[in-house]
Design goal:
The chain has 196 residues and is of the alpha/beta class. It has 8 helices and 5 strands, in the order E-H-E-H-H-E-H-H-E-H-H-E-H. The protein has a single domain (4-194), classed as 3-Layer(aba) Sandwich (Rossmann fold), CATH 3.40.50.360.
């Protein structure tokens, strides 16, 4: 079964030279080869302001770049979100992007308070989160309790009705051998083929 897939590249460097960019390309290659429809959002290439008020979040009009991203997400059946771990969390530009995108009007189709998000129009979508980091992935998951991952899973995606949500944590990216990197690229490419 083919799927509509949105890849959200959350690396703040727009030049595309990091391992996370290679992972996104590998996923897209696999998905395209299997006949899935893939659209990519390069967050670092978008222009948008940070939200500063509750009024703007709930009732403001998002900029064109965000509305276009919302349309890609709306069309998608599956979201693939990639980002590097920065200071234990997601990069600020990605957090700002999610705040802009996941407004009440986008989630429910109307300007309402957050309490009405139980009627989310995003229910039925699934997601995969891929996080790269310099530390061992096991240390992030068990010692630091993967708080950035859990926050995104529970407080953003899960809150909007997106499920199931799966993840891949890729640690020690600066010191991994080419063999280990190639194995990760093949694993992510295989997930793209499955649309998972």
């Amino acid at each position: 079964m083919t799927r509509n897939i949105a890849i959200i590249q959350g690396n703040p460097d727009p030049h595309g030279k990091h391992f996370g960019h290679a992972l996104a390309r590998a996923y897209a290659e696999g998905a395209n080869a299997a006949g899935h429809r893939v659209e990519t959002i390069q967050v670092a290439s978008l222009e948008f302001p940070l939200l500063q008020t509750k009024e703007d979040f709930e009732n403001g009009t998002p900029p064109d770049s965000i509305r276009q991203a919302q349309e890609i997400i709306r069309r998608a059946q599956h979201l693939v979100i990639l980002y590097p771990l920065w200071l234990g969390g997601m990069p600020a530009i990605l957090k700002g992007f999610f705040e802009q995108v996941f407004r009440p009007a986008f989630i429910t189709g109307q300007h309402v308070s957050i309490g009405s998000w139980k009627n989310s129009m995003l229910k039925g979508k699934s997601a995969r989160i891929v996080i790269t980091m310099g530390m061992p992935a096991a240390a992030y998951r068990w010692y630091y309790r993967a708080h950035s991952l859990k926050s995104l899973e529970r407080n953003v995606l899960g809150f909007c009705g997106i499920a199931p949500i799966k993840d891949n944590l890729i640690g020690m990216v600066e010191s991994e051998s080419n063999t280990k990197r190639d194995r990760w690229l093949e694993k992510i490419r295989a997930l793209g083929i499955k649309g998972a």
